[in-house]
């Protein structure tokens, strides 16, 4: 039961972001698009954090190991910068082969690492009022990162479920 609700949460979050991208692309005002892109960058980064947490908690709850699941849930940082390095370290703590597979996945396409790290960096810059660090934040660049992150979430889901 817990596993299904977690999966549903990150899928609902992904669906909401997808809908926002569709509606935001119709705005002809460049300034409005820039603000919307920044908002979406924050949401996409949050989606990445939530999805990874949910998938790993889902894995931990397999076999009715509620103690392990509860431990992970209680000790998971409130906010974790899910850049490539941190994702690698988290996966490595669960299973070293997951970390190795993740690095292989990252290296299969040149833009994956940049797309993931950019969304986290943009979110931090936006959250800390550093507008000068957000010049690359456009609907197109955020959507590109979101596409990579959706692929990453699928990859992690397949990895932990195999």
What does it look like?
With 162 residues, the protein is mainly alpha-helical. Helix content is 79%, strand content 0%. The chain has helices at 2-24, 30-60, 66-75, 84-94, 96-108, 111-127, 139-161. Helix 1 runs antiparallel to helix 2 (30-60), helix 2 runs parallel beside helix 7 (139-161) and helix 5 (96-108) runs antiparallel to helix 7. Residues 1-5 have low confidence and may be disordered.
Q: What's the total count of β strands? A: 0
Strand content: under 5%
What form results from the Cα inertia axes?
globular
User: What's the average pLDDT?
Assistant: 86
- Major β-sheet profile: none
Uncertain stretches: 1-5
Please bin the fraction of helical residues: over 70%
Number of helices: 7
Derived structural class? mainly alpha
Tell me the distance between the termini: 20 Å
Helix/strand order, N-terminal first: HHHHHHH
Estimated radius of gyration: 16 Å
Task: Write a concise synopsis of the structure shown.
The protein has 162 residues and is mainly alpha-helical.
Describe the structure using short key phrases.
disordered N terminus; 7 helices; globular; mainly alpha; 162 residues
Question: What's the arrangement of secondary structure elements?
Answer:
Layout (H helix, E strand, L loop, with lengths): L1 H23 L5 H31 L5 H10 L8 H11 L1 H13 L2 H17 L11 H23 L1
Helix pairs in contact: 1-2, 2-3, 2-6, 2-7, 4-5, 5-7, 6-7
